[in-house]
Amino acid sequence: MTELRSTPRILPVGEQALLVELADLATTLGFFDSLRAAELDGIVEAVPAARTVLVKYAPGTVSYGELADRLATLDVSDGTSSSGQLVEIPVHYDGADLSEVADLLGITTAELIRRHCESDYRVAFGGFAPGFAYLAGGDPLLDVPRRATPRTRIPAGAVGLAGTFSGVYPRESPGGWQLIGRTDVVMWDLDRTPPATLQPGDRVRFVDAGPARVNGVPVSTSTVIRANSGCAERAVEVLRPGAQAVLQDEGRVGVAGLGVTGSGALDRPALHTSNGLVGNSPGEAAIEFAQGGEIEAHGEIVLAVAGACGELRITRRSGRVDSAAGLSPIALGSGERLAIVPARGGLRNYLAVRGGFDVPLVLGSRATDTLSGIGTPPLTAGSMLDVRTIGAVPFPPVRAPEPWPSEHVFADVVELPVVLGPRDDWFTQQALGTLFTQLWGVTRQSNRVGLRLHGDLPLERSITDELPSEGVVPGALQVPASGQPVLFLADHPVTGGYPVIAVLTTRALAVAAQLTPGISVRFTAADSSLTPLAVHTPTSLELP
């Protein structure tokens, strides 16, 4: 087993975050309380977990070293005391891994169920998905590893174990927890206040509900915002969504405590460029198309497309088909259509309309979060997006587009610079060499949550213990027990339980957004002064 540290350690997490590693859950929660009270400049968000606090910061406001020094001055106390309400969750114990987990623990399934129901759990922290709570304090025997390879789909209501934690999946999502049962309780509902069934500090008891009377698990009734209206003076209708069409802006900030990730456009430079071409603010919501698509204008609109777009074709009301130049504003009359032909290299492009789309904000953003289901649902043929009305102003000047790394995407092998850490010390020296020398193929099991990669040689770990769940960021290269890494993108879970060997640079994320299945990547070491720091610990943190 890895040794618990008596002093915290600070580790780099890419270029805009750091990880504070503490001794145990009580110290971690106390540190998080002190961090919130300190209100330090430059901190964007903090995500507590089992034994760490992920701190995201603005590099233009504070540096990695400066922030580490400030964190060293924080005083903490035990943060686990709570008198939260008791929540009982009925469970049908028929999970896919129930028998396997019982065998692993050397007990019967009946004994496993009894121990799970007699445990007094407490909500320690949220993460992974909206409404997902990490429940601590269960029977010490119920300590099981995550699955070697995560499942791509776990149904809503699934009850699982991972390490010493228990939890309930609030909606269908990927995951690597061992599934022992399922519940009909809806864990997340935006129509409720608060939307999550379990709140930090709540006490939780599981109750054996016996065999289920119906097959399957009910889908969460969480509210979604419908895009279709057709009542506005101007609108954009999606005729063909391509492989995927979703509405994206710069994403959500400060919602990790709800288990909600930031989401937002995968290729931020392309989003900014498309908006700049029509006179919008850079972060205005745009349609993110994957592998092309087609729209029709209802009313006169001005739009622009940026990213990995191929040819743009305009079908006029007369029936004439014109080709449009990329990276320039395009005027469409009512009933005219624009088709985006899939690019030879690259995957995603962004269609912005002058004035922006008139879609309600959800938790501060119009972004579609495909993992949590928050925001406008993915767009389909017939989806209608209203366009906000703007005053009579001159046609906006064309702003210079942000550089887009098309030359990298068109290359035979795409190079992605990374910053090692925070958990590179969990891997052998040979694995670190393999990370940089071996080509990694992007598999078809890839989406906005992340890219699943495959290499001939898996990455071997030197530490095989279970890693307590900790916060992750876009660009994190997480390595499950199979040794085949997953590169997290914008819709990644808030926390993860597999070690992150490295994190892409901010600029490399735009390149990763455009990678298509079958392409090969090579990781390179980014120029970085970020190194793990041993931080001086106040006396109150010096544990035995």
From TrEMBL:
GO terms assigned for molecular function: ATP binding; hydrolase activity
Protein name: 5-oxoprolinase/urea amidolyase family protein
Domain Carboxyltransferase residue range list: 8-198, 257-539
Taxonomic lineage: Bacteria, Bacillati, Actinomycetota, Actinomycetes, Propionibacteriales
Keyword match Hydrolase: yes
Keywords: ATP-binding, Hydrolase, Nucleotide-binding
Pfam families in UniProt: CT_A_B, CT_C_D
